[in-house]
Design goal:
mitochondrion; 13 strands; 292 residues; acetylation; disordered N terminus; binds ligand L434P2JQ; 18% strand; alpha/beta
Length: 292
């Protein structure tokens, strides 16, 4: 059973297990898909490709996060798989990050439940025993960038519209300390200091330069590149790689785990402020008006 902080996520977020489809793939592997998370298994290679499918922009709503958490738990417990490729099924968008509608005009209990799910997905991805390769085939701001940062390797499609970064300050909000820790671990303190304060969204060439991604490739090569990177990582004995990954990441994850409840309370009181609500509403309105 999938648990989120000791409770059944299926019940909390109203996601019905019946919404899932379970079939067998061509190679006999069990293929499972929820509404918004598509899993393409390659049992022979030990790799599952997760495609995020929450159109139009893969914003991380509570239901979407819940489906993703359940999917990751299943894969983590299935010894068939040693690696995950994380990518998007929404053209041009990897993920628009946290769903702003979950953080606007709701009550404190909702904010707390939402933030717990955000923490949970980060912990699941960051501490995964599997090899995670992000095949970033679209724009990847804020929470979208964070998901990519949890992966062991990032390949970004070469398109100037596919910008990636933690742009929270542009929304008048603050990247939580564990977003910051994950970024510092990836690009170093000085670059993270600048990127976070300015809310920088890096186009591919700059993202590569600063170390936000490991490789930039033409868009039509993104999946084949992710597969070839994966085979390189899977050539390392699991126990040695997993213990090394844990050694590198445990302190950062523990930082959040130890302060999980306090972090939720901080988030709830921060996001509930009138001034923050106003900033988020203005930002959402601007996004909507962009088209007109
Ligand atoms: C004291 C210390 C306390 C610490 C407290 C910590 C507090 C931290 C709090 C929060 C942290 C949040 C991290 C986040 O992830 S916030 C989300 C940030 N995301 C963004 O800024 C991205 C916004 N979106 C875009 O830039 C674009 O939409 C883009 C992804 C580039 C796609 O562009 P395009 O293809 O042109 O699509 P549209 O802009 O037209 O969008 C289509 C519709 O989707 C809606 N949308 C977009 N993004 C979001 C989102 N993140 N959440 C909800 N909805 C979103 C957009 O409004 C359009 O809607 P509609 O069709 O109805 O007009």
């Amino acid at each position: 059973m999938a648990l989120l902080a000791g409770r059944t996520v299926l019940l909390r977020a109203g996601v019905r297990l019946g919404a899932e489809a379970a079939t067998r793939g061509g190679n006999g592997a069990r293929r499972f898909a929820s509404h918004r998370v598509l899993v393409e298994p390659d049992a022979a290679a030990g790799i599952a490709t997760i495609k995020l499918k929450n159109p139009p922009v893969n914003s991380l709503s509570l239901e979407f996060l819940t489906e993703l958490i359940i999917c990751l738990e299943k894969l983590e417990n299935d010894k068939t798989f040693r690696g995950i490729i994380l990518t998007s099924d929404c053209p041009g968008i990897f993920s628009a990050g946290l769903d702003l509608r979950e953080m606007c005009g709701k009550n404190p209990a909702h904010y707390a439940e939402y933030w717990r799910a955000v923490q949970e997905i980060w912990l699941k991805l960051y501490l995964s025993n599997m090899v995670l390769v992000a095949a970033i085939n679209g724009a990847s701001p804020a929470g979208g960038c964070l998901m990519a940062l949890t992966c062991d390797y990032r390949v970004l499609a070469d398109n100037p519209r596919y910008r990636i970064g933690l742009n929270e300050t542009l929304l008048g909000i603050i990247a939580p300390f564990w977003f910051k820790d994950n970024l510092v671990n990836t690009i170093g303190h000085r670059a993270a200091d600048r990127a976070l304060q300015l809310g920088l969204l890096f186009p591919p060439t700059e993202a590569l330069q600063v170390g936000m991604v490991d490789q930039v490739v033409p868009e039509d090569q993104i999946h084949s590149t992710a597969l070839s990177v994966m085979s390189q990582w899977l050539a390392i004995p699991d126990h040695a790689r997993q213990l090394t990954k844990s050694m590198m990441r445990k302190a950062t994850a523990d930082h959040l785990i130890k302060q999980r409840e306090a972090d939720i309370q901080n988030f709830v009181s921060f996001i509930s402020k009138d001034s923050i609500q106003k900033s988020l509403q203005v930002y959402l309105e601007k996004l909507k008006q962009k088209k007109h």
